């Protein structure tokens, strides 16, 4: 992580959401600030490996980050969607949540074998969704070695889980506490 105190100051913290004891890091306030969002995208774009060909965003806030990076870098954007959103042939990955499971999917044929893809989302916490995204892209034939986030909650261990599967996570901002 780098020092991005100016961006961190634009992120609202909501205590006790979604349950008591949780400090929810709300990036929507950063997105509301045009210059802050521009700086976020510019700083993240500077981190993307030069041989990257696709930016993969996880629904829904990850789409916002991925669209900005795709535009800034002139790269294609791969959408990792929730179930029931893709009309064509698709593959998917189920993953565990704190209470139950979820699924993300992508259209088949959107990733060429060996194509370098960077995974992006607004925040990494426990890493479950990011790990599912990495698995899905790899199943489609893509190479994922890098993941970018606006925020990391390091105490929840998600970044370490990504490193364990050979992906280097980078976040602009780290917040201690849940």
How would you characterize this protein structure?
There is one protein chain. The chain has six helices and nine strands. Helices cover 30% and strands 34% of the residues. The strands form three sheets. It has a five-stranded parallel sheet, sandwiched between helices. Strand 1 and strand 2 form a beta hairpin. It is of the alpha/beta class. Helix 3 crosses helix 4. The protein has a domain of 122 residues: Rossmann fold. One of its GO terms (biological process) is AMP salvage.
User: Going across the major beta sheet, what is the strand order?
Assistant: 4-3-7-8-9
Which topology of the domain at 50-171 does CATH recognise?
Rossmann fold
Helix and strand composition category: alpha/beta
Uncertain residue ranges: none
What sequence of helices (H) and strands (E) makes up the elements? Answer: HEEHHEHEEEEHEHE
Inertia-based shape:
globular
According to DSSP, the number of beta strands is 9
Number of helices: 6
Distance between the termini: 18 Å
Regarding CATH, which class of the domain at 50-171?
Answer: Alpha Beta
* Overall residue-averaged pLDDT value: 95
* Main β sheet profile: 5 strands, parallel
* CA-based gyration radius: 16 Å
CATH architectural group of the domain at 50-171? 3-Layer(aba) Sandwich
Q: How large a portion of the residues is in β-strands, by DSSP E? A: 25-35%
Determine the fraction of residues in helical runs and give it as a percent range: 25-40%
Function: Catalyzes a salvage reaction resulting in the formation of AMP, that is energically less costly than de novo synthesis.
Main location: cytoplasm
Domain Phosphoribosyltransferase: 39-142
Pathway: Purine metabolism; AMP biosynthesis via salvage pathway; AMP from adenine: step 1/1
């Amino acid at each position: 992580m780098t020092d991005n105190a100016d961006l961190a100051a634009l992120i609202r913290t909501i205590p006790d959401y979604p349950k008591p004891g949780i400090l929810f890091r709300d990036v929507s306030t950063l997105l509301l600030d045009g210059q802050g969002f521009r700086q976020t995208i510019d700083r993240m774009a500077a981190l993307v490996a030069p041989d990257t060909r696709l930016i993969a965003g996880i629904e829904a806030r990850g789409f916002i980050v991925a669209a900005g990076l795709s535009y800034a870098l002139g790269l294609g954007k791969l959408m990792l969607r929730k179930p029931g959103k893709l009309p064509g042939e698709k593959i998917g990955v189920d993953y565990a949540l704190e209470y139950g499971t979820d699924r993300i999917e992508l259209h088949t044929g959107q990733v060429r074998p060996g194509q370098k893809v960077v995974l992006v989302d607004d925040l990494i916490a426990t890493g479950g969704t990011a790990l599912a995204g990495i698995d899905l892209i790899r199943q489609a034939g893509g190479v994922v070695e890098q993941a970018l986030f606006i925020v990391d909650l390091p105490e929840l261990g998600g970044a370490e889980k990504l490193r364990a599967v050979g992906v280097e996570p980078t976040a602009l901002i780290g917040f201690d506490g849940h």
